Amino acid sequence: MAIAAAISLPLTSPTRHSLSSINIVRTPSFSTFQLNLIKPKITVKNPNFRVRASSMSIEAPVQSSSASLLDRRESGFLHFAKYHGLGNDFILIDNRDSSEPRITSERAVQLCDRNFGIGADGVIFVMPGINGTDYTMRIFNSDGSEPEMCGNGIRCFAKFVAQLESLHGRLSFTIHTGAGLIVPEVLDDGNVRVDMGEPILQASDIPTRLPANKDHCVVKSELDIDGVIWNVTCVSMGNPHCITFSTKGSQNLKVDELKLDEIGPKFEHHEMFPARTNTEFVQVLSRSHLKMRVWERGAGATLACGTGACALLVAAVLEGRAERNCRVDLPGGSLQIEWREEDNHIYMTGPAEAVFFGSVPL
Ligand SMILES: N[C@@H](CCC[C@H](N)C(=O)O)C(=O)O
């Protein structure tokens, strides 16, 4: 099904956004508004552009007493919110009334398309909790595959739930995911700290066919990509990650120089990774400051990967390259990651922001 238009409002840009067909004015307090207080404030320049026309509508948040777009329930339309965590962007769907995703994986692929759809790295569904949890999160990657977890996505999930439920201040939820129980906490400053649980290190559970050491872990192993040997460590955060700091014979990667589009797919589809893999290319800036670029399974090069940042910290500690609490710089910004010795859990802290709201045909 075709989609007429998709618009994003980067939060770092000025408050007025000029597009060829419409102007959208955003309130400065955009990140703190309530979904049930949203009303469009759109100036239509081109009379041929109909904001709520045949296929898609766009609303910029300003305070009002009218009903939210997300409160409307016309049949045939899918209402969504677009969020991002450090530029890793997602279409969030209120699926609290059902444990079946409101759209298929095929439709998710269409909606994630940056030219013919809304544009996103994935689609996330907010579903009823199971096993005593508050909510369940499911996600489709932009290629339609379903991963177990998403670190940036779960921060967006927490902010979206807070707005759907009109909750304020410091909040914490329990969320059932394919990676087990995950607990995000919305902090007073708007950032979200997530208890990401324990890393999985057993080769068969990651899964990887790379040779394991005596602890059954894959640390400082070697992976052959077209004759180049990459030193890799493998970690699962519920989803698989392959982390590399160097090629054989070199000291430290310079991540800005990598041709990610060429090498990323070769890691992702390597025969050593039966469930494919996410890959983090890491440069050590200091023992508490790491820089990474990521090639994601099912989404390609993204601006950030939360589970990847957690996995790479574990790899850096296991390889003796870093402390347990580090700042991780990603193309879209920074995350603070801690692998706590007392409980073996990983804690990720970072932002998540609403971008725009809209509706498309189901
Ligand atoms: N960007 C996400 C990870 C999303 C899932 C990943 N592509 C996979 O297939 O495992 C994150 O922030 O963790």
Automatic annotation (TrEMBL):
Pfam families tied to this protein: DAP_epimerase (PF01678)
Primary location: plastid
GO MF assignments: diaminopimelate epimerase activity
Cellular component GO terms held in the UniProt record: chloroplast; cytosol
Catalysed reaction, written as an equation: (2S,6S)-2,6-diaminopimelate = meso-2,6-diaminopimelate
Gene3D superfamilies according to UniProt: Diaminopimelate Epimerase, Chain A, domain 1
InterPro entries: DAP_epimerase_AS (IPR018510), DAP_epimerase_DapF (IPR001653)
PROSITE patterns, per the entry: DAP_EPIMERASE (PS01326)
An example Gene Ontology biological process: lysine biosynthetic process via diaminopimelate
EC number(s) per entry: 5.1.1.7
Top class in the EC scheme: isomerase
Subcellular location: Plastid, Chloroplast
Functional pathway: Amino-acid biosynthesis; L-lysine biosynthesis via DAP pathway; DL-2,6-diaminopimelate from LL-2,6-diaminopimelate: step 1/1
Record keywords: Amino-acid biosynthesis, Isomerase, Lysine biosynthesis
UniProt record similarity statement: Belongs to the diaminopimelate epimerase family.
HAMAP family listed in its UniProt record: DAP_epimerase (MF_00197)
The protein's name in its UniProt record: diaminopimelate epimerase
